[in-house]
Amino acid sequence: MLLPQIDPIDQEIIRLLHDNGRMSYAKIGETLNLSRVAIQKRVEGLIADGIIENFTVRLNSARLGKYISAFFEVRVEPRFVEQAGNALAEEPEVISIYQMTGPSTLHMHALLKDEEALETFLFQKIYTLEGVVNVDTHMVIKRFKQGTGLEL
Questions:
Q1: Going by CATH, does the domain composed of 8-48 fall within 1.10.10.10?
Q2: What is the pTM of this model?
Q3: Nearest Cα residue to 14 out of 33, 35, 48, 39
Q4: Which DSSP state fits 8?
Q5: Contact indicator for 88, 126 with CB cutoff of 8 Å
Q6: Are the C-beta atoms of residues 126 and 132 closer than 8 Å to each other?
Q7: Which of 39, 106, 110, 132 has the lowest CB atom count within 10 Å?
Q8: 112: number of Cβ within 10 Å
């Protein structure tokens, strides 16, 4: 598979969109001294090449009533990893979930309303899954950085 070329202009477009995903093509064009149409074609090319996967918005979870941000290391018997991962991925509290190297570990981030919701999530949604052996829970105290993807 041939990797797409990212020239300096595309890199700058990506940087501008990374900083402000709502920046208009016209404003990007003005910044880079290119036309809106030229920017649109380049962004469409970056999307077609799979470099830009989607445009999103970062929400303030506390302002939306989700005061607990927690990470979970869920150890699962190897034969149940896929099943448990898929089941947990369906839970609305789960922001991200990954299968990690190590002893059949799922690494998961969830946002929850309060301690009671955390307890319910642990004991009614995680520990009830077949094959779950152990869960380590880590609550976020302070965020120093939160990425939105790869930075060039």
A1: yes
A2: 0.78
A3: 39
A4: H
A5: yes
A6: yes
A7: 132
A8: 21
Question: Under CATH, which architecture does the 62-139 domain have?
Answer: 2-Layer Sandwich (3.30)
- Confidence tier at 143 by pLDDT (50, 70, 90): confident
Contact at 8 Å (CB) between 18 and 151? yes
Encode pLDDT of 68-115 as tens digits: 999 999 999 999 999 999 999 999 999 999 999 887 799 999 999 999
DSSP bridge partners of 94: 110
| Length of the chain as a residue count | 152
Q: Do domains 8-48 and 62-139 have the same CATH topology?
A: no
Q: Write down the pLDDT at residue 58.
A: 81
- The answer to which of 44-48, 50-54, 56-60, 118-122 has the lowest mean pLDDT is 56-60
Report the alpha-carbon distance of residue 49 to residue 35 in Å, rounded.
21
- The full set of domain ranges for the chain reads 8-48, 62-139
The amino acid at residue 40 is: Q
DSSP reduced 3-state for 133: strand
Could you tell me how many helices (H) and strands (E) the chain has, helices first? 5, 4
